[in-house]
Amino acid sequence: MDPVRNPYAPGAGQRPPELAGRDRELAAFEVVLERVARGRPERSLVLTGLRGVGKTVLLNTLRSQAISRLWGTGKIEAKPDQSLRRPLSAALHMSVRELASRHRAPHRVDDFLGVLKAFALRANDPKGKLRDRWQPGIDVPAATGRADSGDLEIDLVELLSDAAEVAADVGSGVGLFLDEMQDLGPEEVSALCAACHELSQSGAPLIVVGAGLPHLPAVLSAAKSYSERLFRYQRIDRLDRLAADHALVAPAAREEVQYEAKALDALYEASGGYPYFVQAYGKATWDHAPRSPVTAADVRVAAPEAEAELAVGFFGSRYERATPAEREYLRTMAELAAGGDGGEAGAATAEVARLLGRRPASLSPARDALIKKGLIYSGERGTVAFTVPHFGRYLRTQPG
What we know:
The chain has helices spanning 23-37, 55-68, 85-102, 108-121, 152-169, 186-202, 216-223, 227-230, 241-254, 261-271, 275-288, 296-319, 324-337, 349-356, 364-372, 391-395; strands at residues 44-48, 72-77, 174-179, 206-212, 231-235, 347-348, 376-377, 383-386. The strands form two sheets. It has a five-stranded parallel sheet with strand order 2-3-4-1-5. Strands 6-8-7 form a three-stranded antiparallel sheet. The radius of gyration is 23 Å and the shape is globular. By secondary structure, it is of the alpha/beta class. The protein has three domains: 23-235, 3-Layer(aba) Sandwich (Rossmann fold), CATH 3.40.50; 241-318; 322-395, Arc Repressor Mutant, subunit A. α10 (261-271) packs across α11. The relative contact order is 0.13. β7 and β8 (383-386) form a beta hairpin. Residues 168-334 form the Cytochrome c domain.
């Protein structure tokens, strides 16, 4: 069929043509927005799940919902070893600019921008050279005595409280959307939890929506014990069969293309219902199918191409980031997970050490490096699992 008309879109954070299976999450966030609009207290939100389940797509969609309510919004992608001050300053600057452009913003906006600039400038090393100092693009003088103590927790509480007051003044809200939240440092996680705690107690119209890997709740809990009650947690998982079929059938129908039932069976078996894989197999099948309706034979012919593309772009790019010692650890995990659900089942760290003939403590550096690189996570003490669905299956096909 015509590849130009191919409706499927496998891409990192790229919205699929049909956002299937997420109606519950979208409806729940509409309730959050409406409660905030009515002055009701609401918790911030945390989305968790494996890579490829569509967390970033959902995060962006929730942001669009907030924008449609004329909220000010900003998005951040956390990165290891990067200070939160700079990206957070840019995100809040954007959100307040949006508020000012959509509402008759009071003079208080300039006052807040002065506080924001003071907060941002604290990202600079006071011992660094003047020419190397970062200057935020905020055209007001920096304020003093507010959000500039240098203590991130104090400063963040004050900054987000002031941002919420600006939103309240104009009868709106502020949404901060934070992707890869598990990559925040311990000090930053603690500060963010403290700020969200303060906001929830006061019923302020500022919501943080975070997204991260399955162990994110444990990261938050380690920072602040009350985080278990502070956030509304939503686990984002693979699509069920009806939703996966809808993600394929609805875009095709708009192009006057249909699927045979056995073709949908084969596509669900290949993709496992993971949204990224649904798009990848759907795209390859469309390109190989000669005509409508798409058949199971078309899926079988196209599957190797989809798998080859995933092997390079989705699995291989991650595997290449691992050192030889880390790859050995990953392959041992995959061996232990053989027979599990695509290799997602957790592996006991003691069993990994036993198969490798090593002491568990000697493998800690490799395990910790893989966690930091986002290739595995520790959901429970003494176990590790892949952050990428079907990664175990991929590893078992690779030469040693």
